[in-house]
Design a protein that fits this description.
This protein is an alpha/beta fold and about 325 residues long. Helix content is about 45%, strand content about 20%. Strands 2-1-3-4-5-11 form a six-stranded parallel sheet, sandwiched between helices. The longest helix is centred in the N-terminal third of the chain and has 17 residues. The relative contact order is 0.16.
Length: about 325
């Protein structure tokens, strides 16, 4: 048994698997059916800053499924990674007077004015994925999502443990300024700073969460430093591109610890094969269902949620894949 295998098993023995509650039906069809617990017909507008990220796709599936059971209608829109387009779409949605809105911001500060406009028009806004900037948080109903600082620390600690506190670690970031990127990077760097045997080789920002962007940025990183024992990626899409970059350099991905975040289908297949060592599923499907539960409690039962609702996650490694994938397939994540 190699030292890396022993370290992985030790990590798994110490890890606590946490999953969000859910249902086994992954239907993505909104509207129809319903029952009286929905308090009558309601319309929920949801704006995601891109339709390409698997995590956001799973959120929408969960929203659609739970809304359909209540007889609610869901009107989705997608901003194509464009802050101005997102602002316009939120403003347009407010004019239709939905009963509530769900927004996944690309720029935590840029969308504060339209969220404030929504509040003044009596349209409650639930943010997901990323919180609003501090100046706008009073205008939203609540933030539903993950503590990214804690998540970054968890990912970094996994690398430290696998390397026994010594090694060269590439660090490739996602979108500069995005809360998802900056907060988890802060959490990770705080852990790395406590381990002087870890040398960080910064790979810069991809500017997008896509495998193409990850491929390009990892190629640039490997050109500068090919002697890496691990690579930290902000999310799975860029990690998958990074794995391809390693292969193209004839570097066996199983010899480099590669970690990401999101837990989409392609990433989980990479975990199963051993190409991706570690990812944290954000359980988007369960989050989407929880978002509708929060809105149901507010709109029907008049229960105001806390300003911040941190949701649960599920860790995947090649070793725990067989049991944890069952939680995904059953709709619990």
């Amino acid at each position: 048994m190699t030292s890396r295998t022993r370290a992985r098993r030790a990590w798994l023995a110490l890890s606590t698997v946490i999953s969000a509650c859910g249902s086994s039906d992954n239907s993505s069809t909104g509207g129809g059916g319903g029952n009286t617990s929905g308090g009558g017909s309601k319309t929920i507008a949801i704006n995601e800053y891109t339709r390409e990220i698997p995590y956001f796709q799973e959120i929408l599936k969960g929203v659609n499924q739970s809304a359909a059971k209540l007889g609610w209608k869901v009107n989705p829109s997608f901003a194509n990674n464009d802050p101005k387009q997102q602002i316009d779409q939120i403003q347009n949605a407010v004019t239709t007077q939905p009963n509530a809105m769900i927004v996944i911001p690309i720029d935590e500060n840029a969308i504060i004015p339209p969220v404030q406009q929504a509040k003044s028009s009596n349209v409650p806004v639930l943010t997901m994925g990323d919180n609003l900037g501090p100046a706008g948080q009073d205008a939203q109903l609540s933030f539903l999502g993950v503590n990214y600082n804690t998540m970054g620390a968890q990912k970094a600690q996994y690398i430290v443990d696998q390397l026994h506190g010594k090694g060269n670690v590439g660090f490739i970031h996602g979108i500069r300024g995005l809360n998802f990127t900056e907060q988890q990077d802060k959490g990770a760097m705080a852990v790395f700073a406590k381990n002087p045997g870890i040398k960080i080789v910064d790979g810069g920002y991809t500017g997008a969460f896509s495998s193409d962007a990850g491929l390009k940025q990892t190629e640039n990183l490997l050109t500068r430093s090919s002697n890496l024992q691990a690579i930290y990626f902000d999310n799975d899409d860029i990690a998958l591109g990074g794995i391809q970059a390693l292969k193209e350099r004839n570097i066996d991905p199983t010899k480099v610890i590669v970690i990401g975040t999101d837990g989409g289908p392609a990433a989980l297949k990479a975990v199963q094969s051993g190409a991706l060592d570690y990812t944290i599923s954000l359980c988007g499907f369960a989050q989407g269902k929880q978002a509708i539960s929060v809105l149901q409690a507010y709109l029907v039962n008049k229960k105001t949620p806390p300003k911040v609702n941190y949701t649960r996650t599920l860790t995947f490694t090649p070793q725990n894949y067989p049991q944890n994938i069952k939680l995904v397939n059953s709709g619990q994540c």
